[in-house]
Design a protein that fits this description.
Length: 125
């Protein structure tokens, strides 16, 4: 079950990273709340896009081979750290897209982290 969840989460994470890398300006203009963070910086968007791409590939690796769960933990860790930044902004009242951030950033990161670790008794050698 955890591997299936990792596979499902890998798809939008990889697509988000690829979109940031190849169409950063489009991504920047269409993700809710992003334009409120400052002017478009293509290098910055691409840097973060690489993080999302690698995190998604790590989740995909977990889905493909159980023994790759440590990679998935690292990828999900990136997503969780990113979500923590959003949670701090929400708590501090500096977030303008709270519902979107909770549903599109925080919730998937929690699920990704839970899916990354092997279940008790799961063959992961």
């Amino acid at each position: 079950m955890r591997r299936s969840i990792a596979a499902i989460l890998a798809v939008p994470t990889i697509l988000n990273g690829l979109l940031m890398l190849v169409a950063g300006r489009f991504w920047y203009g269409n993700v809710p709340g992003v334009t409120a963070t400052g002017p478009f910086n293509p290098h910055f968007v691409q840097d973060i896009g690489v993080g999302f791409l690698i995190a998604g590939l790590a989740l995909a690796a977990r889905a493909w081979r159980p023994r790759y769960w440590p990679a998935a933990v690292a990828g999900a860790g990136f997503l969780a750290a990113h979500a923590l930044i959003h949670l701090i902004a929400i708590i501090g009242g500096h977030d303008h897209e709270t519902v979107f951030d909770l549903l599109a950033v925080v919730l998937p990161s929690v699920v990704a982290l839970c899916s990354a670790f092997p279940a008790q008794g799961e063959n992961h050698a």
